[in-house]
Amino acid sequence: MTAREVERFVREGRVDPERRRALPGRQRAGREGCCAAARDDLGLPPGHVARRPLAAPDPVPPQR
Predict the structure, then answer these.
(1) Is residue 59 part of a domain?
(2) At what angle do helices 3-12 and 17-42 cross, to 10 degrees?
(3) Is position 36 within any domain?
(4) Cα angle vertex 58, ends 53, 62, to 5°?
(5) Does the CA dihedral 44-37-46-57 come out positive or negative?
(6) Rg, Å, the chain Cα set
(7) How far apart are CA 3 and CA 12, in angstroms?
(8) Which of the ends of the chain has fewer CB neighbours closer than 10 A, N or C?
(9) Is residue 34 part of a domain?
(10) Helices (H), 1-64
(11) What's the number of domains the chain is made of?
(12) Is 8 within a domain?
């Protein structure tokens, strides 16, 4: 799903509720595929970074 396809749909001016409901899902799937490819290229683990557990902080030695 590209921005061009969404723009074409809007410019056509037709009322097609089923097609309109399908657009966000197709757009989301395309975006997820693009993000997955970018993570793979960068060697990052799958999934959204905000949903990963935080690493435990390194223990800090007591100060004198």
Answers:
(1) no
(2) 170
(3) yes
(4) 145
(5) positive
(6) 21
(7) 14
(8) C
(9) yes
(10) 3-12, 17-42
(11) 1
(12) yes
Q: What residues contact 27, with CB distance under 8 A and at least 6 apart?
A: 1, 6
DSSP state of 13: -
**pLDDT tens profile 35-59:** 899 989 998 888 777 787 877 877 8
| Residues 13-34: tens digit of each pLDDT | 877 788 778 888 888 888 888 8
Q: What angle do CA 57, 58, 61 make, to 5 degrees?
A: 130
Structural domain harbouring 19? 3-45
* Number of neighbours of residue 8 by Cβ within 10 angstroms: 10
The predicted model scores a pTM of: 0.51
Could you give the CA distance from residue 45 to residue 24 in angstroms, rounded to a whole number?
A: 25
